[in-house]
């Protein structure tokens, strides 16, 4: 069978409709520990970025991806201070994986989507352990304060977040 | 269904930093992208996205007194995977500017006129054949804010969900025969000529379709194919 080549990705651009970016950042109520994930998205010069689109994909509290009662997907947009937030539940451990939340980032000036992953403290995980050099791994571990986890994303520059390619 | 995701050929995708597009140098990571093993997490899908995202507006052109200004077009887009199999039920978000090159968006400072009868955003669901058809008007070209003499050619934005997390596709569709296509820093960031030409829709013969509209056909290929194709 002939293989088709995936369509080229292109930038989201600056005019992603506001209504698409809003109303999908709350994955609760759902069984499990309710948590909030928040963070700031900045560019090379440290400037916060407005209306960045972030999407997440995560397992339910039992580590399942096919739970009809928990969609596992959400989308948020940053505000003028570069801040995003999600309300969700702490994911369970998927077999072979530590609890984690997949992120993708779409924005004007990003010619393709950026993929990264958020982990919790003390994670031992094959995707986290694949990040080289090892000193970068701590950048993928959210900082917890009670039920709030802070996961800042630096697209480029000092303290740059590790992102995953093909 | 088990889905395989394999690395793409670099020339068929934009590389990241584009000399003609200054924002890319502020935002694309300076470090090489990391390699990772793929697990159930990346190879499962948000198949239930539509429980959160409801269909919106299948017709952006309107009728009669509410008809948007511009050439009436039908966008006939087909969502398929790398096997060419239709992605039935795929969610598709579409947005574009009006015929004068103006978006309904607070970030759009271009002084082109707003069309009160045009709101350029729709969300649709692909049918069993992986098809959506949107009735709308052809978007105009517009100058990129603050970027000197760069005019974007007429284009339509697409956001599509495929079978798994890594199948997510956000891209732009272009129109054939537009002189600005040759100069556009977004389209020409795709270095492979064939891959670039696949980003341009095909105009069907004028006898196609109802409604006396121009019909443009376009195919979006999302990442992923079935494991062991051809095996029972």
Brief summary:
The complex is a heterodimer of chains A (166) and B (232). With 166 residues, chain A is an all-beta fold.
Can you walk through the features of this model?
Chain A is an all-beta fold and 166 residues long. Chain A has 1 helix and 9 strands. Chain A has a single domain (26-154), classed as Sandwich (Protocatechuate 3,4-Dioxygenase, subunit A). Chain A has one helix at residues 18-21; strands at 34-42, 53-58, 73-77, 83-89, 100-106, 114-119, 143-145, 148-150, 153-154. In chain A, the strands form 2 sheets. In chain A, strands 1, 4, 7, 8 and 9 form a 5-stranded mixed beta sheet that branches. A 4-stranded antiparallel beta sheet of chain A has the order 3-2-5-6, with no helix packed on it. In chain A, a hairpin with a 7-residue loop joins strand 5 and strand 6 (114-119). The longest helix of chain A is centred in the first third of the chain and has 4 residues, at 18-21. Chain B is mainly beta and 232 residues long. Chain B has a single domain, classed as Sandwich (Protocatechuate 3,4-Dioxygenase, subunit A). In chain B, 6% of the residues lie in helices and 24% in strands. Chain B contains 3 helices and 12 strands. Chain B is globular. Classes of the chains: A mainly beta (166), B mainly beta (232). Chains A and B meet through helix 1 and strand 5 of A and helix 1, helix 2, strand 9 and strand 11 of B.
């Amino acid at each position: 069978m002939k293989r088709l080549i995936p369509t080229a990705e292109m930038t989201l651009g600056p005019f992603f409709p506001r209504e698409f970016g809003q109303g999908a950042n709350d994955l609760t109520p759902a069984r499990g520990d309710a948590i909030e994930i928040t963070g700031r998205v900045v560019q090379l010069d440290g400037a916060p970025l407005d209306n960045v689109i972030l999407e997440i994909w995560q397992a339910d509290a039992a580590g399942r991806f096919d739970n009809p009662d928990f969609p596992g997907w959400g989308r948020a947009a940053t505000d003028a201070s570069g801040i995003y937030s999600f309300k969700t539940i702490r994911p369970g451990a998927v077999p072979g994986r530590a609890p984690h939340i997949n992120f993708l980032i779409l924005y004007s000036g990003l010619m393709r989507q950026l993929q990264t992953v958020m982990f919790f403290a003390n994670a031992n995980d094959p995707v986290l352990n694949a990040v080289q050099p090892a000193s970068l791994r701590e950048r993928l571990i959210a900082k917890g304060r009670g039920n709030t986890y802070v996961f800042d994303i630096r697209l480029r520059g000092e303290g740059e977040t590790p992102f995953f390619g093909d | 269904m088990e889905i395989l995701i394999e690395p793409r050929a670099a020339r068929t995708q934009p590389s990241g930093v584009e000399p003609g597009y200054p924002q890319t140098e502020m935002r694309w990571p300076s470090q090489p992208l990391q390699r990772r093993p793929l697990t159930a997490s990346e190879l499962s899908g948000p198949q239930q996205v539509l429980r959160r995202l409801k269909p919106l507006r299948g017709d952006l052109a309107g009728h009669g007194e509410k008809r948007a200004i511009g050439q009436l077009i039908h966008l006939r887009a087909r969502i398929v995977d790398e096997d060419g199999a239709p992605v039935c039920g795929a969610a598709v978000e579409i947005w574009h500017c009006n015929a004068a090159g103006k978006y309904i968006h607070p970030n759009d400072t271009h002084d082109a006129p707003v069309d009160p009868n045009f709101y350029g955003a729709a969300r649709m669901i692909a049918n069993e054949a992986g098809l959506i058809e949107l009735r709308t008007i052809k978007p105009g070209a517009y100058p990129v804010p603050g970027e000197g003499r760069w005019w974007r050619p007429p284009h339509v934005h697409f956001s599509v969900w495929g079978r798994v997390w890594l199948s997510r596709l956000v891209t732009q569709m272009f129109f054939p025969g537009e002189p600005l296509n040759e100069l556009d820093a977004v389209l020409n960031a795709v270095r492979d000529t064939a891959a670039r030409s696949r980003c341009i829709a095909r105009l069907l013969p004028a006898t196609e379709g109802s409604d006396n509209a121009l019909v443009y056909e376009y195919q979006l290929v999302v990442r992923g194919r079935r494991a062991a194709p051809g095996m029972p």
